[in-house]
Amino acid sequence: KELRSERDSLTGTQRPKPQNAITIAVSSRVLFNMDKEQQIYEQKGMEEYLKYQIEHETEPFGPGPAFPFVKALEAVNTRLRELYPESEELFDVVLMTNNHAHVGLRLINTINHHRLFIERFCMTGGNSPIGYLKAYHTNLYLSADPMKVREALEEGIAAATMFNPPEKRTEVSETQLRVAFDGDAVLFSDESERIYKAHGLDKFFEHEKAHENTLLDHGPLKGFLESLGKLQKKFYAKGQRMDCPIRTYLVTARSAASSGTRALKTLRSWGLDTDEALFLAGAPKGPMLEKIRPHIFFDDQMFHVEGAAELGTVAAHVPYGVAQKRPQKKLAVENAKDSSAAAK
């Protein structure tokens, strides 16, 4: 079921066709803070949950972990419309939730309260969102439910799991979208990661040296970086490279000297690059991310996601590749359990 927000209706803002837009699908629980409502659902069941939502439908939800990211997408759209008034190459945010339509009014009221430009709602009433994600040509799906994220990844849709925002969240830019990516099993395949997990660091370095001219296969978020790059080029074409409202970062545990060449050559072969590349040679990522201040950081290992969150960065887990077959930290398991119930 699709609902139209009052703000978009009143402003007459036209949304691009899904095949032309860069579609970002977000669940209600990552866009907004619905922890209290989730607790009611888990403790008292669906009927009490729906009753509470209806009774409180005039009370807007507070921001969730994806909220600053979505605001930054809208800031980019504003700049794009100024430069290309007729273009449909814009970010289009879809609220993708398995809530029932009864919750729709509270979500619309919240959208209008926070002055967000979100017109497309898909409320699946408990059904899988995968079919809708495909219909919208989704470029990125963010959810609090790791099972739905895995399902999306298996269908070839870029996706990541988000968690409650850090208690001391780092302030982020309101005018420049900053997105940071891990390399292996995020932008690239997990081929090299498999060598490291199976044979250790020395064999990994040997493998990368021997294959430095062999391109890595693509990972689950390569297409999203590609989409960001296309929009960046639209700003470059107008002489705004130094004032571009999109900035991308590669933040990898690889060493520049021993294994960085292959990563950079692969990006170049794809016609892609990142504005900054940080090769940390195994050092913690959190301190560097604290300096970058991204709106979102994607990594396939919960260890790095948690390390980033501890220092205030909103990080999203990409459950892809060989790292998912190894035991994760207890906190990661608890987070996954907490985020897997119905009101996504």
TrEMBL record:
One of its GO terms (molecular function) is nucleotide binding. GO terms for cellular component: cytosol. One of its GO terms (biological process) is adenosine metabolic process. This is 5'-nucleotidase, cytosolic IAb. It comes from Oncorhynchus tshawytscha. The gene is LOC112256618.
